[in-house]
Design goal:
The chain is of the alpha+beta class. The protein folds into 2 domains: 101 residues, Hypothetical protein ph0010, domain 1 (Glycoprotein, Type 4 Pilin, 2-Layer Sandwich), CATH 3.30.700; 73 residues, 2-Layer Sandwich (Dna Ligase, domain 1). It contains 6 helices and 8 strands, in the order ααββαββαββααββ.
């Protein structure tokens, strides 16, 4: 995972804000000239864009796999976080000034091997690992930042199972597909 410079982080945060602003004004994405961008932005990247208002979550959508240039993924996830997160009504133009943007760039998810459900918590690194749980077609993830609200490994896994639409105790009774990843996270608050 590439580490971005402060200037590159500021650029991506500004890009996310301009993209949301343009989308709220005319329903289109902000236009960027790719030839003016550095390789850090042109290389494929997977991001989550998180929106908060007065410290409370206001939208969060992302991609788990890098499949398009980083700058495009930031733009798409910014629009989706503002307009498509089913947990919230779409952001209005009047609200944008009070919304803070956070971007998390994900490393490539890696399979986490374990031999029995009781081993799973011991394999996770609190505050470091983002976790993807999958059971058949159901899948859910928590970014590493979620450890701040759920520092207990057991509680973290139970909430993640519930987010996946399964029983909170599923991870205790069934071998699930598990992947972990790390993030480079930065926000407008910094």
């Amino acid at each position: 995972m590439t580490t971005l410079s402060r200037e590159e982080k500021v650029f991506l945060l500004g890009l996310a804000r301009k993209t949301i602003q343009t989308f709220l004004q005319n329903g289109k994405s902000y236009r960027v000239d790719p030839s003016a961008l550095t390789s850090a932005f042109i290389n494929d990247g997977a991001v989550f864009v998180t929106l908060t208002k007065a410290g409370a979550l206001r939208g969060c959508i992302g991609s788990l796999q890098a499949f398009q240039p980083l700058y495009l993924d930031v733009q798409e996830r910014a629009i989706q976080a503002a307009s498509e997160d089913y947990r919230f009504s779409p952001v209005k133009a009047a609200d944008l000034a009070s919304i803070k943007i956070e971007i998390s760039i994900l490393s490539q998810p890696q399979p986490l091997m374990y031999n029995s459900p009781d081993q799973l918590p011991g394999k996770l690194r609190v505050g470091i690992d983002g976790v993807i749980l999958q059971d058949g077609t159901r899948r859910a993830t928590f970014l590493p930042q979620v450890w701040q609200q759920l520092p207990s490994k057991e509680e973290f896994l139970s909430h993640l199972c519930a987010k996946m639409g399964a029983s909170p105790t599923l991870w205790k009774t069934k071998m699930l597909e598990v992947q972990t990843y790390q993030v480079e996270e930065f926000s407008e608050d910094e």
